[in-house]
Design goal:
29% strand, Aminopeptidase, alpha+beta, eight-stranded mixed beta sheet
Length: 181
């Protein structure tokens, strides 16, 4: 059977989603330095650290299985510029490996143009087509209204309970999507 985590190429009218490669390092560095994305994310990483992170992503394209997806993410490339403007993926929730979390980052210079929604739809279509997981959740700060709209538009429902138990008390909204296999 083909490795469904390698050589991924998804396309929309405006975007390409594909595996991250070392040649993306400059754009990924720019993305992860963007202070508008998340104050605590990967800000202030060196280019060498970004290269190591990319190697880690690449390693997981080989070791992920449909039963155990540690992290699976794809570069989001804007076609007319041939530039990586973000990444999207899923990862195991560290405290409960049976739960998978979706994440998406878009360079703030490209916000409010529909790219995140477009990328989310094509990525979720790939997840569904390949029966990778049955349930996925997204954890967002309540002030992140744009991201909550993207999740809801793609079929997620806001949950009344919290997946994130016994963790630091955080102000987080949880959205869940059940995927029929």
């Amino acid at each position: 059977m083909d490795n469904i985590f390698k050589n991924v190429f998804l396309e929309t009218d405006r975007l390409i989603l594909r595996n991250i490669v070392q040649e993306d390092k400059k754009d990924i560095f720019e993305l992860y330095q963007d202070p508008s994305l998340n104050e605590s994310f990967l800000v202030d990483r060196s280019m060498e650290e970004i290269s190591g992170i990319i190697d880690w992503y690449i390693k997981h394209y080989d070791i992920n299985t449909s039963e155990n997806i540690i992290i699976f993410n794809l570069a989001i490339i804007i076609k007319n510029e041939q530039k990586v403007i973000g990444d999207i993926g899923i990862r195991n929730y560290p405290k409960d490996k049976s739960k998978n979390e979706i994440f998406i980052l878009i360079n703030s210079n490209y916000w409010n143009r529909g790219y995140a929604s477009e990328a989310t739809k094509v990525f979720l279509d790939y997840i569904k087509k390949n029966s990778l997981i049955s349930t996925i959740f997204g954890a967002l700060a309540p002030r992140n209204i744009a991201s909550s709209k993207i999740l809801i538009k793609n079929g997620f429902e806001k949950m009344e309970y919290d997946y994130i138990e016994n963790e630091q008390k955080k102000d987080i909204d949880i959205y869940e999507l059940k995927i029929t296999k």
